[in-house]
Amino acid sequence: MDSGTLDDLDQRLLHALQLDGRAPLSRVARRLETSERTVARRYRRLRMLGLRIVGQPVPARFGLVRWLLRLTCTPDAAGAVADSLARRPDTSWVTLASGGTELYCALSTRTAGERNALLLRKLARTPQVLSVSAHCMMRIFVGATGTWHATRFRTALPGADSGALLAPLPLDATDRTLFTELARDGRATLPELGKATGRSPSSVQRRLERLRAEGALDLSVDFDPQLLGYHMTTQLWLNVTPAHLRTVGETLATHPDIAFAAATTGRSNLVASGVFRTPDDLYRYIDQRIGALPGIQSMETAPTLREVKRLAPALP
């Protein structure tokens, strides 16, 4: 189904779900000034087209460190390596780019041992992996995964990184079960979550309110951008002078074209993921938006060829 079949109401529904992925459809209908029956019908149709609402833990609230891995593989092995990384529970997204020989992977680790087991042993011993660079995400300005979450309508997400140092949030068995169920369906009903956890719906509601209030739970909208006419997903690797790093990162976070932006370690100290309709739109963005920002010394672009894994939260 092409993008022409999605009208303004569909896009406004995606926007409303981005504001609150668990909002009752009756409330969404009032916001959109239409009937609940119409909203329910549109929501079911979007679900059939691949719409997901995914509950994600905020890694920093659980003492996890986020890493971005950049790997170069032999042409015959990149797909297999990407699939292997996608099967790991500690990865949240994996994409193939640059002619199918380069891939990117987001990884969450709690200890240096967990990190080194992958970087220094497993990948280092894989002969088809020609090079590996690991970039610690020091500050995430926008986005949790690097994939597009209705960013044309983005607002501040609950649990967004403010830079504050917070003690890791303790979890019990009920919290862990909630995260597991919400990863499958962020709009799972209170009775469904109660059955999974062995708790009453009111107890589950209080848990959800606590997790969201403490910035531990994000609800993300996952929808194929190509169905909205966006066919050019691109990784942007920028080298920014230190004095302008924060300004550039925070500015990128306000651009609707940018789904993800983070300050990282490594040769490129700012990485972003952008979604555009056409290559010409990407060119205009680089020329008019990136070119106008202060302190950018160099930039590298890498179009995404295939998303192997996306919006799969690494559970704490």
UniProtKB/TrEMBL annotation:
One of its GO terms (molecular function) is sequence-specific DNA binding. Residues 171-231 form the HTH asnC-type domain. One of its GO terms (cellular component) is cytosol. One of its GO terms (biological process) is response to amino acid. Gene3D superfamilies: 3.30.70.920, Winged helix-like DNA-binding domain superfamily/Winged helix DNA-binding domain. Keywords: DNA-binding, Transcription, Transcription regulation. PROSITE patterns: HTH_ASNC_2 (PS50956). Pfam families: AsnC_trans_reg, HTH_AsnC-type. InterPro entries: AsnC-type_HTH_dom, Dimeric_a/b-barrel, Tscrpt_reg_AsnC-like, Tscrpt_reg_AsnC/Lrp_C, WH-like_DNA-bd_sf, WH_DNA-bd_sf. The keyword Membrane does not apply. This is Lrp/AsnC family transcriptional regulator.
